[in-house]
Amino acid sequence: MSVRSTPQPWIKTSSPRDGAMLQSPPSQFEVTFNQPMALKRIALTDDTDSEVAVTATPAQPDASSATVLLPQLDPGTYKLHWVGSDANGNELAGDLSFMVHHSR
Ligand SMILES: [Cu+2]
Q: Is residue 17 part of a domain?
């Protein structure tokens, strides 16, 4: 028998990227994993550390990417924290921040 190591989830891409300076507000947060993952939790906070309500999208446990629609965001700096989980209960969390600039 061969020994099979437990695959650990990792992030392939996420959007907005950490540190992104955006000229217009992002309409969604999207993250792509190396394997199927479901987003369990997402928290978005603004400059004043107030939580911005985000409508959770139904979990898609067989999908290796997750998309969450964001509300209309005013210019400012935002922090986003998310937690994902795979079918084996392996969790993966991420933190990122991005800035929405005033458009002209
Ligand atoms: Cu900026």
A: yes
